[in-house]
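[Discussion] Sanity-checking designs against the backbone

I'm trying to build intuition for which residues belong where. Below is a structure token string of 203 positions. I'd appreciate it if someone posts a full sequence so I can compare it with mine line by line.
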């Protein structure tokens, strides 16, 4: 995250129902982050295509020439100092739409590159990434079965660390199918809003 007065947040959601808890939380967070600069990217509403095509494959191999919709998303991220992913947990992972967005956007030549001497050179050190997963199961189930660790491994180690982004905050909202999630939502919004506005240590 940025520690100066120019913080800019890209808030990404992946849910087909605009009346969903996912969108409600994203709207609450967007409001909490203002008057800072916030852009909301609703991947469903915008019709983002998550399919990794032969054109994406060529761009990945060559490190450039990305399709226009991918370039647009990369430009959004170039603008941002903070990225917040707000998503429902599907089968202990992110929705297919969000996974496709990650697959197509965080690619070789832009998010990272391969060093001539071997190894990977991350390129997104300027960005801080925060996670707000919305889970149907309770916190106890996530702890017993290692689901929270699995998500953190996928996203914190597998994406955020790989591209060199700074680790921001992670705030789960559990029991999302239950009628009384207000306290959990309030806590998640406060946690993420505070993290965007103040340094979070990498641990």
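Best answer:
Here's mine. Compare freely.
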């Amino acid at each position: 995250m940025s520690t100066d007065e120019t913080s800019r947040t890209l808030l990404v959601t992946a849910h087909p129902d605009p009346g969903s808890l996912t969108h409600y939380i994203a709207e609450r967070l967007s409001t909490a982050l203002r008057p800072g600069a916030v852009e909301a990217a609703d991947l469903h509403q915008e019709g983002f295509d998550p399919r990794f095509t032969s054109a994406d494959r060529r761009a990945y191999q060559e490190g450039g020439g990305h399709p226009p919709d991918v370039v647009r998303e990369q430009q959004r991220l170039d603008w941002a100092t903070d990225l917040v992913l707000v998503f429902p947990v599907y089968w202990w992972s992110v929705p297919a739409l969000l996974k496709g967005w990650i697959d197509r956007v965080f690619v070789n030549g832009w998010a990272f590159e391969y060093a001539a001497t071997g190894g990977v050179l991350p390129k997104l050190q300027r960005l801080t990434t925060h996670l707000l997963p919305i889970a149907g199961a309770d916190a106890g189930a996530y702890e017993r079965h290692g689901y929270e660790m699995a998500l953190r491994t996928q996203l914190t180690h597998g994406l955020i660390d790989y591209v060199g982004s700074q680790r921001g905050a992670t705030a789960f909202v559990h029991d999302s199918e239950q009628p009384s999630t207000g306290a959990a939502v309030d806590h998640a919004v406060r946690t993420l809003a505070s993290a965007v506005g103040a340094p979070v240590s990498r641990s």
